[in-house]
Amino acid sequence: MMTNQITPGFMFATGIENSAPTIQNGKYRMDELEKCGHYTHWRKDFDLVQELGITFLRYGPPIHQTFLGHNYYDWSFADETFTELYHRDLVPIVDLCHFGVPDWIENFQNPDFPNLFASYARAFAARFPWVQLYTPVNEMYICALFSAKYGWWNEQLTTDQSYVTALKHIVKANVLAMRAILEVRPDAIFIQSESSEYFHAENPRAIGPAEIMNVKRFLSLDLNYGRRVDSEMYEYLMDNGMTREEYHFFLHNKLKRHCIMGNDYYVTNEHRVAADGRTWAAGEIFGYHVITSQYYNRYQLPIMHTETNLNQGPNGDEAVNWLKKQWANVLRVRNDGMPILGFTWYSLIDQVDWDSALRENNGNVNPLGLYDLDRNIRPVGTAYQQLIRDWREVLPTQSICLRVPVVLPKEYDEEVGLKNIRQAKARKDASTNAPANS
């Protein structure tokens, strides 16, 4: 029998981006897997993950090519790729919805989306029962904001009501998907990849608008984790179409114990705010450590740094320096006593058209990856490979950490994996039967 190979406290990760929002009023889909050549080079991409010494991969099937109708799926590409991940013993953090939905669902204004998505999540979990780690809906805050407030993607709407509608549907979809996956895999762990934001007042007259934005940034996670929102945000939600019944749905869900809070941080995550509410990029002011501490203080959950990157730049070392800065912030978070469990450079290969936030189909290659689109390693890839070598064994013994009870893919059918699953199911049943105030 295999011994239980619980991961040694820290998850070094990368990702292969499966963003697929629509633009041009739904006429064109920005499929990053296609733009970046993954459909052709997926085996090589998995080779590169292992070449870096990485075990954890943020990855998911293209929802628009897989979820073809209610209870109607095309698993052909997922079967190939996930079977390969299983045989390589790579641990996927499965990203089921990344900024887009299939054409037949249309967009995030559709009230049927949450239940439909939950059925998709359940079907995926049943087909790949060895998968344990999930990000059901990626960056819920950004997905709703860009689709239904900024008017950039999908429904391309710009009102507070359209934003609240998208937000409540997206978060409900995430919650229902977690429930559905737990029915199949009771020891599933959910890593919420969410953008960690901060808004800086440009002058005293901007303090009010900045304070509102700094509360609004928490809405997706407040709802997801069943936390009561601030009174001003409650009025905002009610004024813009959320019902009391819908709000209480979120309050009554108690899935937080299954979650790791993923905090994404880019140089674009901090904003300056004018008195009239206009915002623009502030660059890095507080940084990952300060902003993540704010999120941790609010939710008291284990943390993972789930996304960051930077252009390689004209000097060639800008991305390497950013990697080192982010890693220093991760160590600071950890040494301050917050349980941070992982770090992710996102993504494995260069991205395309993120310079326009996927609003324009220009075919611009953005040098953000650990490898370029020819699958040649970039300086930041070499630096990350060395960072992993240096810290993989040292980190768990020299700073505060938790051990995440991850069952490796090939352990799933072994006695030890089944034992973990049985224990998780027993805990779930005990929690379900506990008194309501427990």
TrEMBL record:
InterPro entries listed in its UniProt record: GH (IPR017853), Glyco_hydro_1 (IPR001360), Glycosyl_Hydrolase_39 (IPR051923)
The keyword Hydrolase belongs to this UniProt entry's keyword annotation: yes
Source domain of life: Bacteria
SUPFAM superfamilies per the UniProt record, alphabetical: (Trans)glycosidases (SSF51445)
GO BP, one annotated term: carbohydrate metabolic process
Keywords for the protein's UniProt record, in alphabetical order: Hydrolase
One of the record's GO molecular function terms: hydrolase activity, hydrolyzing O-glycosyl compounds
Protein name: Glycoside hydrolase family 1
